[in-house]
Write a structure and sequence with these properties.
With 308 residues, the chain is an alpha+beta fold. The chain has an 8-stranded mixed β-barrel with strand order 1-2-3-4-5-6-7-15, surrounded by 4 helices. Strand 11 and strand 12 form a beta hairpin. The protein is globular and about 50 Å long. 20% of the residues lie in helices and 35% in strands. It folds into 2 domains: 134 residues, Roll (Diaminopimelate Epimerase, Chain A, domain 1), CATH 3.10.310; 141 residues, Diaminopimelate Epimerase, Chain A, domain 1 (Roll). Bound molecules: pyrrole-2-carboxylate. The site of pyrrole-2-carboxylate (PYC) has 13 residues, from helix 3 and helix 5.
């Protein structure tokens, strides 16, 4: 097994090669289910504290049966699998470039929710063309103590999101505690009301939007991720969900660049085209850097070897 860490616009990815796990012989979507069920301790030991933390996303690289794909990848966080991961795909691409496994140009990865294309522009700059994204519901009301009623949209961008256009809390790092509490309270209210994505899917990511702070950018966002931590990047799948909502509202045209800031001020450059199923195909461009090579040691005497 070989493990390389990177960050994409501030958000960490831990990429795992040659893990030699027995995931069966089904399609990647089935292998991902086997991975989630059978290898919880593996995920915990790789991503959770004390070896990692709640912000990490793992990218388990597997062989793809698709002849046009350079690899298959299963993304996971400290509690479950992700469908797709935008920052993780950019991190994986920069990591494979660092290892000399891919050259600048076009490549395709297989994920459990579909194929994603990348353009490796430089060893660190990557544009990801995501799976088709769509808005599932608009103006859904939630109730949150101290903020009252808030309206948001539910959208799919490779994961499920609830997006609040005008956050009552400013999108600034100094309000991280309040933003996190608000995100958790919204998620709880959605759960209590039985509000889900399609087929009862848990809406596990909450996005709060506010005005941009940087010249030339369009918006700033805070993204609560399933572990209760937050995305340091603008969240690739979350940006895809956002573009799907903008397209559904007809408030941003296809092909025009949108710059999305994260709560730490890092940015993605986004645009969309109309998809075949009525949604949008979003391209997310950002930068990633390799930060470390990790050689984990699993000491059988360590009570926290599978994470806290
Ligand atoms: O970039 O898509 C993303 C993502 C999902 C969760 C954390 N990052």
């Amino acid at each position: 097994m070989r493990i390389i860490d990177s960050h994409t616009e501030g958000e960490p990815t831990r990429t795992i090669f040659n893990a030699a796990l027995d995931l069966g012989s089904g399609p990647l979507s089935e292998k991902a289910k086997v991975f989630e069920k059978k290898y919880r301790d593996f995920c915990g030991s790789i991503l959770k504290e004390p070896r990692g933390n709640d912000a990490y996303v793992g990218a388990l690289v597997v062989e793809s049966d698709e002849s046009d794909c350079v690899a298959g990848v299963i993304f996971f966080n400290t509690i479950q699998n992700l469908g797709m991961c935008g920052h993780g795909t950019i991190g994986l691409s920069a990591t494979m470039a660092y290892l000399g496994q891919i050259e600048p140009g076009s490549h395709t990865f297989e994920t459990p929710v579909g194929k994603v294309a990348i353009e490796l522009k430089t060893p660190n700059r990557v544009a990801v063309t995501n799976v088709e994204s769509y808005r599932f519901a608009s103006d859904v009301l939630v109730n949150v103590d101290s903020y009252g009623e808030l309206a948001g949209d539910i959208a799919w961008g490779g994961n499920w999101f609830f997006l609040v256009k005008d956050s009552p809390v400013p999108i600034k790092l100094k309000y991280l505690r309040q933003l996190t509490d608000l995100g958790l309270a919204i998620r709880n209210d959605l759960e209590n009301k039985g509000i889900t994505g399609s087929q009862g899917a848990w809406i596990d990511h909450i996005e709060l939007y506010g005005p941009p702070e940087l010249d030339g950018s369009n918006s700033r966002s805070f993204v609560l991720v399933p572990s209760g931590s937050y995305d340091r990047s603008p969240c690739g799948t979350g940006c895809s969900a956002k573009m799907a909502c903008l397209a559904a509202d007809r408030s941003w045209p296809a092909g025009k660049t949108w710059i999305q800031e994260s709560v730490i001020g890092s940015t993605y450059s986004l645009s969309y085209e109309h998809g075949e199923a009525g949604g949008v195909i979003v391209t997310v461009e950002g930068s990633a850097y390799v930060t470390a090579e990790v050689v984990p040691i699993f000491d059988s005497r360590d009570p926290y070897r599978t994470g806290i």
